[in-house]
Task: inverse folding
């Protein structure tokens, strides 16, 4: 019941795989537990995701796409696109259990149901640990990310990312506004001692920029470190490009400058006598 | 002031140009009013009079008489009022906000009852504030701050923060900050209100010395004794000027 619900929600997809053998359709949940000590996993990998910028020789490509060597067949390539025939790479572990004694290449596999649609096995990859060293080897199938219906997931991640940046910006704005509010009396003193409005605004914006530079530098270093750690854990995770860092840093820096400028402008218009009474 | 005022606008550089001879301050029918749901509430009513350069004037009156409001108007910190106000002959009532800031910067120093030092800055840094808004080079500013610290006997306290000083010492810094840019006019709002009588007397002695050296001083005070240190007392009650005793020095 629970697993059906999970499957309906699309969360249990990775634990259910169908394949054909001797004109019969089998699936990973109905075969005996001795065959599958652990339920199989599905990974989507992007063609050439870890190629880097260097041109690679053809035998290198196989080992590089998913960072795991192939023992038979071929790797995903640029022709495995949404319109072309669906392809899949299976782990040695999966191949041996699904089709013992025969080559897996060319066999049909489904990750959606016994009625298909079926994907053709194009390669067999070495067995691998995917989530950590303490894990036991489990059967894995790899799909080409280009053919995986993951656009929705990617969009969702994008939305979550945008929300995170928006929340960070709002938080930043609130903190800086609060600190400007805390310094109302100081603004009054400075205006009484000859500061023009633009001097007051400039002072707060300069302070905002100084704090932002520190934040961006520290945050940048931490992000690069986090990406390295995640890349080491999750095979096939494409490292974000430098431009992503620059865009996010720019967005937050912009939010910080705005967050200093808007309240500072308002504060600079305060009647200095009122500000001086604000104890 | 109306947008359609026919009074001439004064350029900033004219506003701070060489002083015109005559009274330092001249007021004609100065009024300040608050519009409240209950009707108009006057804070100042038809204030007229002159204050000459070199005078030491005390403004007295009960709480709510409008003393501090008058001081804020004279110091260009309050811009919402009607009437005429000439500072060194310049028509303040016809000036823009920027021009008033320029006048304040050039000629006026403020001393407050609550000292109003910036807590996060040292004594030296607090003294530097007025200079930092004037076109003075950093090296010159440092020299002026050092001179002032010396003059006020505060060299040993230059790196201390306001909270590390007594009330009297803080007010001494407040006065030093007011005079550091060599203003023609010092406006003091109950400068001894938070001090012991001895400390208060020291601050009044300091004002007397500054006045003897030519600085015009206008103070708001509740103390008869302090008021008598000046040449003249202006009395306010309910926004009206009810009296002016004493003589303008020759």
Result:
């Amino acid at each position: 019941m629970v697993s059906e619900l999970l499957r309906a929600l699309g969360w249990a997809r990775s634990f259910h795989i169908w394949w054909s053998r001797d004109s019969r359709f089998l699936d990973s949940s109905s075969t005996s537990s001795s065959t599958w000590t652990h339920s199989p996993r599905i990974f989507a990998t992007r063609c050439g995701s870890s190629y880097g910028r260097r041109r690679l020789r053809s035998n290198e490509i196989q080992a590089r796409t998913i960072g795991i060597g192939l023992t038979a067949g071929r790797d995903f390539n640029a022709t495995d696109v949404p319109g072309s025939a669906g392809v899949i790479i299976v782990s040695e572990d999966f191949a041996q259990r699904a089709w013992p004694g025969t080559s897996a290449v060319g066999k049909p596999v489904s990750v959606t149901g016994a009625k298909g649609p079926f994907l053709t096995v194009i390669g067999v990859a070495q067995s691998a640990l995917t989530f950590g060293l303490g894990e036991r080897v489990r059967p894995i199938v790899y799909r080409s990310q280009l053919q995986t219906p993951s656009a929705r997931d990617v969009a969702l991640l994008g939305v979550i990312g945008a929300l995170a940046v928006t929340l960070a910006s709002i938080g930043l704005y609130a903190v800086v506004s609060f600190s400007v509010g805390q310094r109302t009396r100081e603004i009054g003193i400075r205006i009484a001692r000859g500061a023009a409005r633009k001097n007051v605004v400039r002072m707060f914006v300069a302070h905002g920029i100084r704090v932002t530079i520190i934040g961006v530098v520290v945050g940048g270093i931490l992000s690069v470190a986090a990406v390295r750690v995640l890349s080491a854990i999750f095979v096939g995770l494409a490292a974000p490009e430098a431009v992503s860092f620059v865009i996010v840093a720019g967005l937050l820096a912009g939010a910080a400058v705005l967050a200093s400028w808007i309240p500072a402008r308002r504060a600079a218009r305060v009647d200095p006598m009122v500000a001086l009474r604000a104890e | 002031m109306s947008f359609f005022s026919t009074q001439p606008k004064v350029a900033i550089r004219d506003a701070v140009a060489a002083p015109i001879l005559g009274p330092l301050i001249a007021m004609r029918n100065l009024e300040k009013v608050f519009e409240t749901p209950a009707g108009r509430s006057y804070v100042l009513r038809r204030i007229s009079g002159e204050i000459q350069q070199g005078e030491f004037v005390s403004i007295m009156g009960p709480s709510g008489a409008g003393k501090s409001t008058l001081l804020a108007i004279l110091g260009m910190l309050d811009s919402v009022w009607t009437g005429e106000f000439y500072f060194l002959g310049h028509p303040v009532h016809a000036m823009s906000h920027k021009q008033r800031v320029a006048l304040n910067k050039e000629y006026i120093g403020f001393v407050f009852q609550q000292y109003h030092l910036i807590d996060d800055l040292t004594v030296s840094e607090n003294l530097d504030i007025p200079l930092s808004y004037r076109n003075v080079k950093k090296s010159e500013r440092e020299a002026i701050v050092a001179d002032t610290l010396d003059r006020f006997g505060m060299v040993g306290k230059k790196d201390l923060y306001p909270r590390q000083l007594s009330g009297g010492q803080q007010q001494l810094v407040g006065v030093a900050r007011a005079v550091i840019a060599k203003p023609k006019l010092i406006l003091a709002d109950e400068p001894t209100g938070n001090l012991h009588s001895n400390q208060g007397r020291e601050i009044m002695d300091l004002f007397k010395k500054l006045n003897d050296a030519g600085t015009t001083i206008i103070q708001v005070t509740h103390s008869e004794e302090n008021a008598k240190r000046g040449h003249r007392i202006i009395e306010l009650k309910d926004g009206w000027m009810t009296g002016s005793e004493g003589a303008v020095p020759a």
